[in-house]
User: Which sequence fits this backbone?
């Protein structure tokens, strides 16, 4: 009966958990209606994402002070109604996603021509943000599936936006593989409901221990495969470099920054929080996926000459790093994974935006035909190099701290597994550095025979400004990482011991 | 009945996977469709199958009398069918457009995004 009292009236303040979603969905609908009104949708999108950021900052402030926040739809008792529950990781990633979305919207405005004004770009971006935010904040497994599909539908619209042959080819591969991944997720979800009789995440935590371990391991393996495909982890990563370079740079930046991270976050939530028993059994599989992604990602990038395809391989390497913490499941490992997801969202978005600027400045997509860009644009060259260093984890930049946490965690773990993961992380950093600096040398440093296309000066400041914001944040947080590390510690403690999370949903002691 | 439907769901999934392994896009589309239906069937079976009795808890009782089918999975399937149908329609149109533009429906021949024998990267700087 205690539960009844707790949930009888959702306090107005609790609405802050769903407010970002409501804003994004309403904004998407409005942007669709007003898509014929020129630049209006751009300002609308800025306004909506700005309001989402404000909500999410408020949400984080509350979680920081009082622990996870939740609300349940329609005041149905928690295990029955659809719950939204935000712990620090969920809210932090939602905030980062909205920030990356804001930067991409600003960047895209400088790339778009007047003829493209009516393609519903802003509506789809807001819908994508709604889906991503929903995936980070939901407390219900079926609801997570619905948000995955929202993301998928929005990304389908974005990936084919100009209907070039290249885009259609990439979209076919992206479409089939992601559709298959969500079908597998749905399959696992049906089994969870059949076995446990609940889909509420907080309720699953309590009931999963009592279920048949073999059956739960099968469910965990299905979830790992489904979310691993979403995250493009080794060995189900081939679709990513085949599709992410096809759409315009702004769209691929948005995909690279957000979509794979949603997959990793889903693995973190489902395996570490919901089914820790299955995770223990699957530990070797996760470790193999992590090591495979860490090594093969940057190796692929070294062998690649198409600039954005090479970025795709570097992105896969980063997914491996995020999986390391899930394979270890120690507090510092989970903290490292959380911090890495945060860093990867910002860094990958920035890298793809800079790649878009390079392609624009040279008029080429292949690094073999680029060169000498340093003379034309030192600023671009510096941004590219900073982002590559951040990705590899060179000290004063943001990427260093998550990798430090992860390496510390794998050393503490000891054992052959910990050593193997640590070596893979270090090897990944070296290979990423080789791949990245090689690209830099090819694009910026070496001479180019024929003259460069003169670039239209026009809105160059604004165009360079968008990735410059991200580079600034990466440098600033790299020099002053205290807040991020503190957040990673708090977030990890709630993931390892979800008691506060369960209590926030309103099931404290209520779980049979 | 339950086990028969469970077997059928397994058969659907197996057939779906088999079709998805094909190189022809149209067979892959069929595979997606069959796989989706197998998934829905599995959720349906997970919610128990019972024809007698309505899933309503009588007044004054904590749970319903006798075996009843759980209505929640049926609601879940409705959602999943709608979403699956929307995505399938999109994939259908996408594949048709790809067939028109690329003039092939063989995934081995669709190598625009991943060129097969692209020249090697430069060995020097």
Assistant:
């Amino acid at each position: 009966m205690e539960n009844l009292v707790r949930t009888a009236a959702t306090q107005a303040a609790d609405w802050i958990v769903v407010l970002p979603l409501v804003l994004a969905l309403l904004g998407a609908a409005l942007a669709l209606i007003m898509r014929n009104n020129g630049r209006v949708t751009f300002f609308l999108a800025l306004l909506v994402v700005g309001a989402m950021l404000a909500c999410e900052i408020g949400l984080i402030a509350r979680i920081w002070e009082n622990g996870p926040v939740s609300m349940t739809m329609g005041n149905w008792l928690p295990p029955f109604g659809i719950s939204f529950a935000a712990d620090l990781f969920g809210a932090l990633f939602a905030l980062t996603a909205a920030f990356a979305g804001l930067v991409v919207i600003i960047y895209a405005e400088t790339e778009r021509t007047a003829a493209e004004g009516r393609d519903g770009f802003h509506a789809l971006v807001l819908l994508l943000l709604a889906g991503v935010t929903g995936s980070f904040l939901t407390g219900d497994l079926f609801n997570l599936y619905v948000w995955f599909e929202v993301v998928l539908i929005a990304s389908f619209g974005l990936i084919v936006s100009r209907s070039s042959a290249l885009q259609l080819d990439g979209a076919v591969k992206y479409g089939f593989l992601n559709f298959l991944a969500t079908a597998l997720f749905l399959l696992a979800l049906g089994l969870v409901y059949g076995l446990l009789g609940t889909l509420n995440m907080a309720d699953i935590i309590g009931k999963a221990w009592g279920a048949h371990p073999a059956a739960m391991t099968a469910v965990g393996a299905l979830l790992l495969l489904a979310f691993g495909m979403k995250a493009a982890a080794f060995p189900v990563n081939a679709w990513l470099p085949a599709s992410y370079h096809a759409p315009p740079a702004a769209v691929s930046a948005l995909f690279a920054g957000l979509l794979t991270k949603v997959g990793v976050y889903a693995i973190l939530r489902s395996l570490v929080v919901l089914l820790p028993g299955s995770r223990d059994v699957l530990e070797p599989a996760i470790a193999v996926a992590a090591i495979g992604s860490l090594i093969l990602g940057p190796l692929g990038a070294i062998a690649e000459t198409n600039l954005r395809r090479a970025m795709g391989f570097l992105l896969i390497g980063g997914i491996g790093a995020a999986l390391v913490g899930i394979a270890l499941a120690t507090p510092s490992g989970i903290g490292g994974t959380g911090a890495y997801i945060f860093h990867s969202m910002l860094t990958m978005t920035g890298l793809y935006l800079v790649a878009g600027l390079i392609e624009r400045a040279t008029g080429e997509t292949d690094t073999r035909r680029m060169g000498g860009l340093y003379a034309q644009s030192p600023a671009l060259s510096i941004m590219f190099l900073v982002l590559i260093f951040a990705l590899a984890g060179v000290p004063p930049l943001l990427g260093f701290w998550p990798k430090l946490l992860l390496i510390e965690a794998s050393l503490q773990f000891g054992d052959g597994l910990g050593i193997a993961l640590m070596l893979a992380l270090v090897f990944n950093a070296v290979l990423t550095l080789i791949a990245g600096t090689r690209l830099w040398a090819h694009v910026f440093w070496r001479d180019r025979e024929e003259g460069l296309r003169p670039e239209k000066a026009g809105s160059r400041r604004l165009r360079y400004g968008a990735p410059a914001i991200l580079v600034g944040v990466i440098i600033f947080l790299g020099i002053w990482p205290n807040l991020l590390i503190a957040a990673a510690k708090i977030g990890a403690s709630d993931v390892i011991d979800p008691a506060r999370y369960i209590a926030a949903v309103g099931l404290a002691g209520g779980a049979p | 009945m339950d086990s028969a439907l469970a077997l059928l769901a397994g058969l659907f999934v197996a057939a779906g996977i088999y079709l998805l392994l094909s190189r022809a896009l149209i067979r892959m589309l069929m595979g997606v469709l069959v796989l989706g239906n197998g998934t829905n069937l599995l959720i349906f079976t997970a919610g128990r199958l019972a024809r007698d009795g309505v899933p309503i808890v009588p007044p004054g009782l904590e749970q319903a009398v006798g075996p009843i089918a759980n209505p929640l999975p049926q609601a879940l399937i409705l959602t999943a069918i709608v979403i699956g149908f929307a995505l399938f329609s999109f994939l259908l149109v996408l594949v048709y457009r790809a067939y028109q533009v690329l003039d092939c429906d063989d995934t081995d021949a669709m190598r625009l995004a991943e060129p097969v024998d692209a020249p090697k990267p430069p060995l020097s700087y």
The longest strand of chain A covers residues 69-72. Chain A has one domain: 2-504.
